[in-house]
Amino acid sequence: MEPEMYWVVGPNSNVGKTTLATALISVLAGTGRKTLGFKPYGARKFIDIIDLDCTGIPAEVSKVFGMDAVRLASASNVASLDDIELISPVVTVSFPEYANNLVTRAGARIIRNADFYRGKSALVLEKRADYRNILEELGIRDWLDFQETELGFPEVPRLGRRKVEECFRYLLKTRDVETVVCEGAGRFLPFWDAEKVVNHIVFIQSNEIYLFRDIDLNVSFGTDKLLPVQNIVHALRQKSPRKAFLPFSRSARHDEVARETVERLLGRTA
Fold it and tell me: Which of 73, 92, 222, 230 is the most exposed place for a label (fewest CB within 10 A)?
């Protein structure tokens, strides 16, 4: 039986999807639901990881490719930090913008389906000592041996759709999962090969959060590109959402405030 699924999506990057997804996992797990986080596709800017401090994360290369998954795994009651590559199977580090692929992991080493790629940006920067030093500090010492690709982030499903499905199925096979909280990537929808039924959608825009419960949306994609979140807006308009505001807060309390907001949104009936 397929687990109940929440999608957390939003129209832009850095609008709080990971914070909200983590809070949702924590609240659902707190009610006794066996809850797993999943982020099929992720992207990060190289500039954002230069000062990265990732103590306690297993496998050095995961410092680059697993930070969002660390948060999702830490909130789950059926996952651990050893699962971060499975939880986020395809991750691209971009430079200077998301459209330009620097390095990409597709798949998870724990199930031996991982491949690593480098894009044109890597070829441009490979002679720069500062770039080499930062990648080596983050655990990537053999990027020149990565497979070459000209694909940017919106085209990464061509590198990893099958791998995403394999990682997802492995998690479901090896864990007792009742609920999956699936996070989008930037302004794109999360998806993989097999058709999925999305039971509930959480849409976040600025500090406004909308919960579309029991939407039971059948999703099947016939494309090799990530699709913008606007592709499901027409379906969302058919339902009346519950709405909550995520109050602005200092970083020390941000996760706590997000959990309180999710509890209000769910009506404490999750």
Answer: 222
